[in-house]
Design brief:
- By secondary structure, this protein is an alpha/beta fold.
- It is built from 16 helices and eight strands.
- The chain has an eight-stranded parallel beta barrel with strand order 1-2-3-4-5-6-7-8, surrounded by six helices.
- It starts with a helix and ends with a helix.
- The mean pLDDT is about 95.
- Bound molecules: flavin mononucleotide.
- The site of flavin mononucleotide has 23 residues, from strand 2 and helix 10.
- Flavin mononucleotide binds next to strand 2 and helix 10.
């Protein structure tokens, strides 16, 4: 299982709150059979104290899929990891990258870059609790920390607890003064530092994350020696550009997928979602970028975003929007 996950992690879609929910992941999986998908972050207090097990719901088709947890209490994280593994997630990822206020107040996310021993304890407790692999997503440092020193020390300490796979967002987080959104854009990217980590820790599986906008850029990082590449915003906004060619080009298997076929394959999924009481827009909001940059994309986006909230809206709206794409080619 771990080998398969390591392979899938050559390319992954990053965890993104409010974006990589189960509907988004279902769509992404139609575009690539092979990439590793991540959930939105789920906090361990929400699962363990709040009993919010509905946050773990997902479709079997999404696999391979990793659950991302946020937390800093080893016992609670172990229990949350156990719940995640029992729900079928094959990897549990710990978030050491999120700079938001809400997360800081609970002492988790990027602020834990300052407490590698605690992170190691968390990882160890999670690993002892489950058979599934435990991985970490981190930054290169926070605030006034010196990434050149802090990042290797962090990886050294945390990997000593048994974590073998890290995704590194190649920029610092500033815990005061920058919003979470600014923290994804303003601190400069330091890819050379991340590449040096691969040389320092050749036995670990390291993925680079942050600012990667094309599949070609991802391939360049793999060629430069990284084990994996994690893509967030570009995969969300232009899923076809990143994912349609991923299987043949990154994994050397299968064929390029077709976004029109993916849109059609969403129809029965949408039917099922609606008949279980869901709303069309909950699914179609993740499909708006499916044809980004292609003829007909504007009408596709407009029809879905204007129509999907109407109470009578159903799969026919998606077919109507798709007709514009098919006419345009
Ligand atoms: C809307 C949004 C929500 C995010 N939520 C999370 C999250 O829940 N957990 C996490 O580790 N990172 C989160 N991130 C950060 C991404 O995983 C990623 O590290 C970041 O966007 C940089 O990669 P990119 O430049 O490819 O987007 C989020 C990013 C965005 C845009």
């Amino acid at each position: 299982m771990k080998n398969n996950l390591q392979k899938a992690a050559r390319l992954s879609v990053a965890p993104m709150m409010d974006w990589t929910d189960r509907h988004c992941r279902f769509l992404h999986r139609l575009l690539s059979r092979e990439v590793l998908l991540y959930t939105e972050m789920v906090t361990s207090p929400a699962l363990v104290r709040g009993g919010a097990l509905h946050l773990l719901a997902h479709s079997p088709e999404e696999h391979p899929v990793a659950l991302q947890l946020g937390g800093s209490d080893p016992t609670e994280l172990a229990e949350a990891a156990r719940l995640g593994a029992a729900a079928g997630y094959e990897e549990i990822n710990l978030n050491i990258g999120c700079p938001s206020d809400r997360v800081q107040s609970g002492t988790f996310g990027a602020v834990l870059m300052k407490q590698p021993e605690l992170v190691a304890d968390c990882v160890k407790a999670m690993q002892d609790a489950i058979g599934a692999e435990v991985t970490v997503k981190c930054r290169i440092g926070v605030d006034e920390q010196e990434p050149e020193q802090v990042l290797p020390a962090f990886i050294e300490t945390v990997s000593a607890s048994g974590c073998r796979r890290f995704s590194i967002h190649a920029r610092k987080a500033w815990l005061q003064g920058l919003s979470p959104k600014e923290n994804r854009d303003i601190p400069p990217l330091d890819y050379p530092l991340v590449l040096r980590m691969k040389a320092t820790f050749p036995h670990l599986h390291l993925s680079v994350n942050g600012g990667i906008e094309t599949l070609q850029q991802a391939l360049n990082f793999l060629e430069a020696g990284m084990d994996g590449v994690m893509i967030g915003r570009a995969a969300y906004h232009q899923p076809a550009d990143i994912l349609c060619d991923a299987d043949p080009r990154v994994f050397g298997v299968g064929q390029a997928s077709d976004p029109v076929e993916a849109a059609r394959a969403m129809l029965p999924y949408i039917e099922a979602h609606l008949s279980s009481g869901g709303k069309l827009a909950q699914v179609t909001r993740h499909m708006l970028g499916l044809f980004a940059g292609r003829p007909g994309a504007r009408q596709w986006r407009r029809i879905l975003s204007e129509g999907a909230h109407k109470p009578s809206a159903g799969p026919a709206l998606v077919e109507q929007a798709l007709a514009h794409i098919l006419q345009a080619v």
